[in-house]
Design goal:
single chain, about 700 residues, alpha+beta, 5-stranded antiparallel beta sheet, globular, binds 2-(butylsulfanyl)adenosine
């Protein structure tokens, strides 16, 4: 990508060369901004990025008449991913879990069979699954009312997406009107994509015009759909495959296969490689077929999706956090390549972990240029004996960070020294220590380490956390370095005076920023908990905590109680499906740390965290109740009983205490039932429970 012009000193450039280079710089910086701010996936270091901006500014200073209307100096960060109205999805748009081989797939299928009791009781009953390619595009939800397309929305964070109705009308394969007889309300979901040939042709055109070139068909599709000016979308060859539904007023189909057939009849494109399979052998055979045809297909796919065919089973299986229990993605093996390690550097993360990174001779892996790959930790480098100068095999799978797999040819690396893992933090110089039994080496600098502070603030404003429009990671870092903000709460104390006169900030952008900050003074609980950056607590866990405790006050009180080993509060935390002992320890410790409490108190003085309302449990007779299942259940598995109770807003616990509201006791219930009776709790039979919870 680097232009040859860049080796010429600015003083030596001719005006023609300056024009050419400013065009390239504008394009490159814009791309880096988007990768950084919107995709959270920068491909260059901060220093390299700054050098590009500096060179751009220097050329502009020497050739003021060449300053372009789209010059990077006119703008800070990427155009916010806003401008589109927001759409709250009536049914969340979910993601999928992954499996990578037949064994993992078998485990997934076994899990389904265990969950649906009639299948575990009758091993011969077939479990039909529909297998279809996983299209590498962007998902979209199309809402039809009385057969007319009334709204199109991107996935966004799964709960709220962007309104792209005007754009979707220009996508071939998206019908704007459906035939008679479709349900009154019908949300059709699927993937917008660009074919490989259209992508290549588009890039040729873009290049000829000196416009942005896209890295791959998926980026091209996303960039083309999310155009504020829909007439640009109209000129881009986008397509659509339908494969799911959201809110519907009726479901005149009983299986996913039947739904796909209806979609076809209604005029949607459905993928021709969609098949109903009656077991793992057929599934694997179809996986092989799809994989064999992968290269010939004119669109990118990155795996095969399997979905339980029967809808009544899908409904019973429900969801675990953000992914259905009834569907899974079987990913194709990761793409690999061999390149050279130019250097090993150390990155300091938000929790102080020192992560070694291989700086690589850039190489294209599966259509993406990879210049860095993680080396995980000190042991990993030692075990693989990776040294600077080695040829290594790297792999890139989906969106995960590329990793170094092995040294391919050490080229006689004995002459080169092994990597010495630092014993001090490369950023703050504090001691770096590795605790007994831990793989990670951590900087002990805590609050004094700017790297940790940077990363914590970046995390706080990231897309799935506070997501403040116009306030990217780069900005918070610059504000931190200049002393404008130290802790997250400071963001809410920024004023126009503090920002006035800063490079790149004008009255209008300052005003926009302050408005965007003000807009986040009220925030949903899962986002808030995630933003705190508690070790091991990702989005899914943050959601689980919000769901379990409902409010920040309740969560903090419970975490305080949970400091006592053996306490009910700790037991409750551990009873949450998805929270294990090590995670629980990190969560409890976070809330026990005085500094964290000071930051939290300060934040809560500035921000209102909305209580988490469990969806659709209004009117449920068991909402908020704590239920214990004991003994044998006849009609459902334990898993299904627990999932159903939770879907109705109940908490399910494994042990009986005076906090328990209901004990459902089947045959063979022993001490738990006895204890419940002693405590005078409500004890129900399975049938009584079913009657009580029947909708
Ligand atoms: S089904 C509840 N089917 O994969 C199930 N998703 O990793 C929802 N995708 O966000 C998704 N092809 O963007 C489904 N045939 C397919 C798909 C597919 C691509 C994407 C979709 C989703 C992501 C999840």
């Amino acid at each position: 990508m680097t232009s040859d012009l860049r080796s010429i000193a600015v003083e030596e450039l001719t005006s023609v060369e300056a024009d050419a280079e400013l065009a390239t710089l504008a394009r490159e910086i814009k791309e880096h901004d988007e990768r950084y701010y919107q995709k959270d996936a920068p491909t260059v270091s901060d220093a390299e990025y700054d050098a590009l901006r500096q060179r751009n500014a220097a050329i502009e200073a020497r050739f003021p008449l060449s300053v372009r209307p789209d010059s990077p100096t006119h703008r800070v960060g990427a155009a916010p991913a806003s401008g589109f109205g927001k759409v709250k999805h009536r049914k969340p748009m979910l993601s999928l879990g992954n499996v990578f081989d037949e064994d993992e797939l078998q485990d997934f299928i076994d899990g389904i069979r265990r969950f649906l009791k009639e299948l575990s009781d009758n091993p011969d009953t077939p479990l039909d699954m529909v297998a279809e390619p996983k299209i590498d595009g962007l998902s979209i939800s199309l809402r039809y009312e009385h057969g007319k397309l009334v709204q199109a929305a991107t996935r966004g964070d799964g709960t709220v997406g962007e309104d792209v109705t005007a754009n979707a009308r220009h996508v071939a394969d998206i019908p704007v009107a459906l035939p008679q007889g479709v349900p009154e309300v019908l949300e059709v979901r699927g993937e917008v994509y660009m074919s490989k040939s259209d992508f290549l042709a588009l890039n040729e055109r873009q290049e000829a015009e000196g416009s942005k070139v896209f890295a791959n068909p998926r980026n091209a599709a996303a960039g083309s759909l999310r155009q504020l000016d829909a007439s640009i979308t109209a000129k881009r060859p986008l397509k659509f495959f339908a494969y799911a539904y959201g809110e519907v007023s009726a479901t005149p189909w009983e299986t996913h296969g039947a739904f796909i057939d209806l979609l076809k009849g209604w005029g949607f494109s459905v993928n021709p490689f969609t098949r109903v399979c009656d077991g793992i052998d057929e599934i694997m055979a179809h996986y092989d077929t799809i994989q064999t045809h992968r290269a010939e297909l004119d669109y990118d796919i990155d795996g095969v999706v399997y979905k339980v065919n029967r809808l009544d089973w899908q409904e019973r299986l429900g969801f675990v956090s953000r992914a259905p229990r009834w569907a899974i993605a079987h990913k194709f093996p990761a793409e690999k390549a061999v390149t050279i390690v130019n250097a090993i550097t150390i990155q300091v993360g938000r929790t102080g972990v020192l992560t070694p990174v291989a700086e690589l001779q850039p190489i294209t892996v599966g259509g993406v240029v990879v210049g860095r790959a993680t080396l995980h930790n000190a042991d990993y480098i030692k075990d693989l004996d990776i040294r600077v100068g080695d040829h290594v095999r790297i792999q890139r799978a989906g969106d995960v960070i590329p990793q170094v797999l092995e040294v391919v040819d050490d080229g006689g690396h004995e002459g080169r020294p092994p990597f010495v893992f630092p014993t001090t933090c490369p950023v703050c110089d504090s001691h770096a220590v590795r605790e007994e039994g831990e793989a990670a080496t951590r900087c002990t600098g805590g609050l004094v380490c700017p790297a940790q502070a940077h990363e914590r603030l970046k995390h706080f404003v990231s897309r799935n956390a506070f997501d403040i429009e116009g306030l990217g990671g780069k900005h918070v870092v610059a504000f931190y370095d200049d002393g404008l903000i130290r802790t997250p709460g400071d963001i809410f104390r920024l004023t126009a005076e503090m920002l006035a006169g800063r490079e790149g900030w004008k009255d209008k952008s300052i005003q926009n920023l302050l408005e965007a900050i003000a807009a986040k003074r009220t925030i949903e609980m899962p986002r808030f908990v995630y933003a705190l950056g508690i070790r091991q607590v990702g989005q899914a866990t943050a959601r689980l905590l919000a769901k379990q405790y409902g409010s920040m006050t309740a969560l903090r009180m419970a975490m305080e109680d949970a400091r006592v080993i053996g306490s009910e509060a700790l037991e409750e935390l551990l009873s949450i499906d998805g929270i294990g002992a090590s995670m629980a320890k990190d969560i409890v410790e976070f809330f026990a740390e005085p500094h964290n409490n000071a930051v939290l108190n300060d934040l809560l003085d500035n921000v209102t965290v909305e209580d988490f309302d469990a969806p659709d449990t209004a009117g449920s007779p068991v909402a908020g109740k704590t239920v214990v299942f004991t003994g044998t259940l006849e009609t459902m598995s334990r898993g299904e009983a627990k999932a159903k109770a939770e879907a109705l807003g109940a908490k399910v616990s494994g042990s009986v205490s005076k906090k328990t509201d209901i004990v459902v006791a089947g045959p063979g219930a022993g001490s738990k039932e006895k204890k419940a009776r002693e405590l005078g709790l409500t004890v129900l039979s399975e049938q009584q429970w079913i009657n009580m919870t029947a909708s």
